[in-house]
Amino acid sequence: MISLKDRNFLTLKDFTQDEILYLIDLAAYFKRLKKEHVLHDKLRGRNVALIFEKTSTRTRCSFEVAAHDLGMATTYLDPKSSQIGKKESIEDTAKVLGRMFDGIEYRGYGQEIVEALAKHSGVPVWNGLTNEYHPTQILADMLTIREHMGNLRGRTLAYMGDARYNMGNSLMIGCAKLGLNFHAVAPKKYFPGEELVSQCREWAKESGAEILLTEDVDEGTRGADAIYTDVWVSMGEPDEVWEERIEDLTPYRVTMDVMKNAASEAIFMHCLPAFHDLDTEIGKEINAKYGLTCMEVTDEVFKAYNAPLFDEAENRMHTIKAVMAATLSDDWETA
Ligand code: CP
Ligand code: NVA
What we know:
- By secondary structure, this protein is α/β, with parallel strands linked by helices.
- It folds into two domains: 12-133 and 316-326, Rossmann fold, CATH 3.40.50; 137-313, Rossmann fold (3-Layer(aba) Sandwich), CATH 3.40.50.1370.
- It has helices at 17-35, 58-69, 90-100, 111-121, 135-149, 166-178, 194-207, 217-221, 242-249, 256-261, 281-290, 299-304, 306-328, and strands at residues 47-52, 73-77, 103-107, 125-127, 156-160, 181-185, 211-214, 226-229, 267-270.
- The strands form two sheets. It has a five-stranded parallel sheet. Strands 2-1-3-4 form a four-stranded parallel sheet, with helices on both faces.
- Helix 2 (58-69) packs across helix 13 and helix 5 (135-149) packs across helix 13 (306-328).
- The longest helix is centred in the last third of the chain and has 23 residues, at 306-328.
- The protein starts with 16 loop residues before the first helix and ends in a 7-residue tail after the last helix.
- Phosphoric acid mono(formamide)ester is lined by residues 56-59, 129, 137, 271-272.
């Protein structure tokens, strides 16, 4: 039996294939219970802290709804109203929160922050996104691919865009561990770091996956089962990088031609939020400055491939629930 009780969830690097699959199965089980309106609030009386130093829609709502469904109460600490990092060190904060809460979620900047929280709090800590990794997102992505394709092993995921940041890194790890081929399709300078690539190649050898880093869109996306992209400029990056990113990454936008080059049943994936039209403030600003009407994905692709995309967003909640449940208790069945 797999038990993840008392473990942190900081990066998928720390988890075996079986452990990751266990979390995905547990999420699918919770999803069934939720759809059937079966209560699963065994963690009544527990409390979790949700620290967000960057903004969020999906991740925050997922943690809050999931905690509530499990019977737990949440305390939300927003980017401005706590002492964290400004008046109080991460170590001291961790020690205080660890006395009050059964688990702590952190979204923010460097991975070392979430690691310090884990080291000093004495309770499970969950990474809700750092600059380097976004591991809860990958669980949702894998559950979505499995729901749409029936399996994971042997599938190919092509990631287009800035592949050296949290999403590219985490997808490469998740694919390598679970046996999906991972293609990073980007200009060379946006390839994931060499050290992580060679670590992932080791895992890929065991799982039977292949990792391809290519600048060639045709080669990288040909026959792929999932075409994945993310924003070109991530939270916390300075506005000055927009111009360079637009120039570098426009050839790597997901268009209908890209989708046609993929497998006939391919799905389009995006962690969201996405810039596919002018209905956002940033979309309008970029349009005024650079004349673009979309960025990483065309509106046509976004609308044509809408269904899996919003399953992916919904699955954030079920998978985050699985992470909290499994690390706080081992009293779960997945059947
Ligand atoms: N995908 C994701 O993490 O979305 P939010 O930034 O809205 O949480
Ligand atoms: N790379 C993006 C992911 C958002 C879910 C960011 O860090 O802003």
